[in-house]
Amino acid sequence: MLDxxxxxxxxxxxxxxxxxxVYSVRYMADEPGYVRFFAKLDLMTAVILLMVIxxxxxxxxxxxxxxxxxxxxxLGFDTSRKASGRxxxxxxxxxxxxxxxxxxxxxxxxxxxxxxxxxxxxxRISADPSVQLGGVAVVPLAALLLALAAFAxxxxxxxxxxxxxxxxxxxxxxxxxxxxxxxxGGFLFNRxxxxxxxAPNVLHLAFVVGLVTALIGSALMLTQNDVKKSLGYxxxxxxxxxxxxxxxxxxxxxxxxxxxxxxxKATLFLxxxxxxxxxxxxxxxxxxxxxxxxxxxxxxxxxxxVPWLLAALVTVLVPVLVLGLSHGVVAEDFFHKQGSVVLLxxxxxxxxxxxxxxxxxxxxxxWGLLTMILLSFLIVxxxxxxxxxxxEAFLYPDPVLRDAIYAAAGINDLAFVILVLxxxxxxxxxxxxxxxxxxxxxxxxxxxxxNAIYLNLYALFSREFYVSVIYTQLSRSLLAAxxxxxxxxxxx
Length: 492
Known about the structure:
Elements: H1 4-27, H2 34-52, H3 57-75, H4 82-113, H5 118-127, E1 132-133, E2 136-137, H6 138-153, H7 171-176, H8 184-191, H9 193-196, H10 200-222, H11 227-247, H12 251-281, H13 289-297, H14 308-330, H15 338-360, H16 366-395, H17 399-408, H18 413-439, H19 449-462, H20 467-491
Antiparallel strand pairs: 1-2
């Protein structure tokens, strides 16, 4: 099934796999099982490509299942490390839990519409989306099961715990995971877009789950002191944004996000492998006391800051103008779609937070710094806007289907307006309070109640909600149960 989605995904998978293969030639040279590693890497690439071009439900299921199996063997490649095997097993079990809803969705669609061929299946669903089995509507239930499978594969909250602990596997595997493995949830939503068009409640669920995942993943990423684990939680947050975009009806933008994130995050993981390897041999910090004295006690230079009220206005208004004008020029109907407006809202929050963070940095030329940030922001937004709309036309050339997806993701107009106004007022108020607190130099005052709350939250996030403790207990219980079963089988 070589449609536009399959071609885009196949190019991404092949490109990242090629880079990972070339990188691994030297990076894995000293590892035992060198040939075995490349054999598994080749098989994984082949299976991912099979998944993205699958034209029927059976082939898709087989490829989806095999990806989890091969990932288990790649993550547990170093058999001498108990941690690698333990976390590889946990990933395998989580993937199997996520496979069950996909199997259920495939059986439902096959029994309801009498075909396993995807093009024919989508045609029959468009002709009659109200088919029932045993009094239950097939399409909404199948869409819910498909969404659950996507949540498990793309590490959404409550099913995310496997992702950070895959970092014990080889670094090239962590990079390859961004080529249609961890981001396969976005592909699944797009492949079954004709199904989700008729399941608006499932899209609303995807938006909520993606939003929560994005917030928690980003917060966990900022509190980690392990390079690869920090990148892993960053991936979790980005996958939350991807699923959230699907929940808003911006399916094509989710694929664009999938490709862009896959490329730069795979590069970051490969770079982290070099950094970790070099730092183990030489950390670059001279051991003498003079270096410590100069670094820790150097005098601070005089810095300039923009007045807080003016900085607050720039922070709030500039991103709105840049985003609004860029989308207004490119797409006339952009503001008529609720999903597009929400994406614009998140873009505004991100841009405003960028200006807010830059304002806090000390600089000898604060206005020059803000000007450079504004120019960079303008270039990024205009480029993103042009590419995103072109990509949408490429993946979904049928405007009727595009509008139907956005309409399915919509909610009541009055409720939508109230929610947007409420969150806007909440964010602007929080920024103004923070600006004012900084102007009075009380923002970081020790001993305050807010500081205590901040420290407790930081401790909770830095300890990953104590997931590692739960993992340890579950792993010990599983190992003990396995030993008892082995003893019983030998006795029998």
